Amino acid sequence: MRMIVQRVSEASVFIENKKHSSIGQGLLVYVGWGYADATIDSDWMIRKILNMRIFNDHEDVMNRSIIEVQGQILVVSQFTLFASTKKGNRPSYMRSANNETAKPLYNDFLEKLWTISNLPIKSGIFGADMEIKSINEGPITIYIDSKNKE
Length: 150
Hints:
Elements: E1 2-15, E2 18-23, E3 26-32, H1 39-51, E4 55-56, E5 62-64, H2 66-69, E6 72-77, H3 99-117, E7 121-123, E8 130-145
Parallel strand pairs: 3-6, 6-7
Antiparallel strand pairs: 1-2, 1-3, 1-8, 4-5
């Protein structure tokens, strides 16, 4: 499982030129599953993003988590996080989980994220053609891979 986590002052998802969901201060999370991923990967990732200290404290030091600032989270499914560009110029997505595997993992991820955090959780629509607009604050952009826990 892979994620791109961005600290944002606002973010929105548009589908067919209509605003589907939006958040204020919080995290924009692009998330994708590989063919070998399972719910255990999601559980680790949820703990990681909820406890990551990337929001400023009163001394302007990144020392607070999304839970502590009571921010919002916008989750967008992103199978292209598993793109392989090793050969040729067209990325291969063979390592991405297929829709039948990834969609239940995505739905489970959203449900657990909301249940554990009790924060406002918004999302795009799995598999939809979406337009994402965001204001990255910092900029803070972090890549996380559940199979490469650094």
